[in-house]
Fold these 2 entries.
Entry 1:
Amino acid sequence: MKIRANGIGIEVEDTGAGAGQTQRPVVLLIMGLGMQLVAWPPAMVEALVAAGFRVIRHDNRDIGLSQHFDHLGAPNILWESIKLKMGFTPKAPYQLQDMALDAIGVLDALGVQQAHVVGVSMGGMIAQRVALAAPDRVLSLTSIMSSSGARGLPEAQPKVLRALLSRPEGTDRDAIINHYIKLFRVIGSPAFPLDEALTRERIAMGIARNHHPVGTLRQMLAIAADTGRRAAELGRIRARTLVLHGKDDPLVPFPCGEDTARRIPGAQLVGIAGMGHDLPPGVVERLLTPMIPHLQAA
């Protein structure tokens, strides 16, 4: 369903909508760079519902069925990356703070006063921003395969950056699917091999729903523009925090998770051996094992 949040149109899926679950504690799931709300594994959503939670997911701005910002133009990623390397702040069309206010606006629109906030990758960065911007709204924080954004942290391997910044070899559906399969092979979890048939099916579903790669570029700049800024603020977070991170993550290396947990007072860090930067079934099970008790305890 489409709602107005923070003054823009945001697409939302809510397990509590018309299902008699509005009194359940809410888990707000915030997805990562360029990914739609349907990228959350159904098994994770179902497990949270079975554990007694109402689960709310949304498409971040500029992706999926939420409002796009094409009027802001396509960014020059190469030039802005050079500026970042030189220590300058890239010029972003919008900020992670704006995306955090979108998430808070989703809660406002649905009449939710407080929620457990769970974010993956860029979504973890947004979740951190939510906990900073509205501490009284956050029952707990879970940051998955994410980062504080501090300067000097280990970066993605060169082959990963090449895969992330590459383009499909064609514009047809199969070329786009093959492009994402190659990316997931590079960033995926070595101990949990890619189920290619299932992954192709889910990518195809996402493409059919919406395909908006230029929005991913603008989101990428929002991440870059927050580099070095958010890290210094994380000490103000007071929400019960769980940091989950793959020990074999080639995109956002494990020390990034360690750094996040170190900066947030009282945060618990759980490293998962063999986990990369994706959410295959085996990884989902290992994430839920500490996550559900964390949510219940808060």
Note: The longest strand covers residues 8-14.
Entry 2:
Amino acid sequence: MKFFALVLVMAVAAFAMTDAAPEAGISQPEVDDWMDEIAYFDLEGGGIPNAYTVGCGWDGVNFWITNGAGQAGASTGMFYIFDHAGILLDSFPQNGAPGWGLRDLCCDGVYMYGSVSSAIDYYDISTNVKVGAFTGPISPNRAMAFDGTCFYTSSFSTDVYQLTWDGVSGSTAANTVWSTAATSAYGAAWDAIGDCLWVTSANSTGIIDQIAADGSLIEHHTVISGATWGGATMALTVPINELFCLEQGSPDCMHGYDVTPVSLERDTWGSIKSLF
């Protein structure tokens, strides 16, 4: 059944959600399939007072959502903490981050990382306090992901940089262009289960790029046609592997997708597509 559903998805160039909206925060692994939407929650209706959300990250328990300060008439951006069901738990300032504040986020299990200008700030997830910052290759380093060793970033570009940081606050991370397969990057999330990078686009195409561990393109997935994406993050891995993407729409919201790998090798993707 999984194999059959995968073939059907890949047989079309774009696909719009036609099923009834899923219940917020609820996964149904017995009925969903690859790239199905399995969770949804409204950020504005859920407690964020305006439509200026940009980034998201998962700390292992909760989502961190960033909100732009300058656009909202405030002096600093805010973090909003939501549980997996989309319930607002807390909020606190982004330590003076101006303008749009921190964009996309990623977490290494100890710190939450997010970029403001060329600096990548990091916060202790146990205290919510900013600990330090290091310098990335672009300004701002919008997309942020971490694979356990290296960081990945990009900014409205097809280029995705891989960063190696020495762990010292104030230092500059070594970097290289790791991939040119993104569509127009805004958010990113490293999928440890699928061994790939998911990259969201903010160019109103609705495309989410899936990039292999060697930087080559696996697929451009048109998940919601015309959508403008913000940040991206992986969340729970069981009973299914979850990719969450922030949609900058009406309202701003979070969509969760089933990206549980099927029993296919990466090279099989090309073989399947050749059938059509």
Note: The chain has a mean pLDDT of 85.
